[in-house]
Write a structure and sequence with these properties.
Number of helices: 13
Distance between the termini: 42 Å
């Protein structure tokens, strides 16, 4: 979706950098444009991620814009071009930010870059800008979204699961997600070999999926509930404090526990 891909692409780039953190620490003087992991990030975003977004925007403009635009005619050309560019540029930005943090010895902060991006992405999907994010997501088109109040949630989810947009997402996900996980796993395992660490690859993939689909999505749902109950001005600060205490805090936060399991470097060597 146009509104979330900017955060997703950033998380992808940051995730690729974190996966390569052992390698980045081992070669701190390598120039950015000489970094093979950056090349992998750009190839993934340019050959897979950005085209998938363009496909969805062309095929389902109302769903891809979260029911804002009803047709191609409603989309200004500059917005389409910007969308395609950010799907690559944000990936490069996420990689660059995480890479700089890793070289500065702040590997956990780099790891959190990916998590924060996924949290923002899921919050938009769950809550959106008006509290109807999940309704917009589970509406295949604007007509379905317009009749949301007339049907229950189960009806809309069932309708969406068999819709053309959902079928397209299944096919794309079967290619994009395994490719992303394979690239990240390759980087992590390559780094592990240099420091003599052994981790089960299934466990590594599971840790990533738990971080994204469990922690980031769960945090977004909690944040949305707090905004619904307490409003933006009180709900967002409360959610931020709660997420920091339970998830992000070093040593005993849920995110840090997964960070430790992934056997990523604690900090760059001096």
């Amino acid at each position: 979706m146009v509104q979330v891909d900017v955060f997703w692409a950033y998380s992808i780039g940051a995730g690729f950098a974190v996966a390569a953190s052992h390698e980045l620490i081992a070669a701190p003087r390598r120039r950015l444009l000489e970094d093979p992991r950056l090349a992998s990030t750009l190839l993934y975003c340019g050959l897979l991620f950005a085209p998938s977004g363009a496909w969805l925007l062309w095929g389902f403009p109302d769903w891809e814009t979260m029911q804002v635009a009803s047709s191609h005619a409603a989309l200004p050309p500059w917005l389409v071009a910007l969308f395609a560019a950010t799907n690559i540029g944000q990936g490069a930005l996420g990689y660059w930010v995480a890479r700089r943090l890793i070289h500065a010895g702040r590997v956990y902060a780099a790891y959190l870059q990916a998590g924060i991006g996924y949290l923002a992405m899921f919050f938009i999907l769950v809550h959106g800008w008006d509290g109807t994010g999940y309704q917009r997501f589970f509406s295949p088109d604007r007509a379905s979204f317009a009749t949301w109040s007339e049907q229950n949630l189960t009806h809309h989810i069932g309708q969406w699961l068999g819709s053309p947009v959902a079928l397209t997402l299944y096919g794309m996900g079967a290619l994009l997600i395994p490719a992303m996980l394979a690239l990240m796993l390759s980087s992590v395992q390559s780094g592990h070999r240099t420091v003599g660490v052994c981790r089960n690859p299934i466990g590594l993939v599971a840790a990533v999926l738990i971080a994204v689909l469990g922690i980031a999505l769960g945090s977004a749902v909690v944040a949305s509930m707090l905004v619904h109950v307490a409003g933006w001005w009180l709900g967002i600060p409360t959610a931020a404090a709660l997420i920091y205490l339970v998830v992000g805090r070093r040593r005993n936060g849920l995110a840090y526990l997964l960070f430790r399991y992934l056997a990523l470097p604690q900090r760059a060597s001096k």
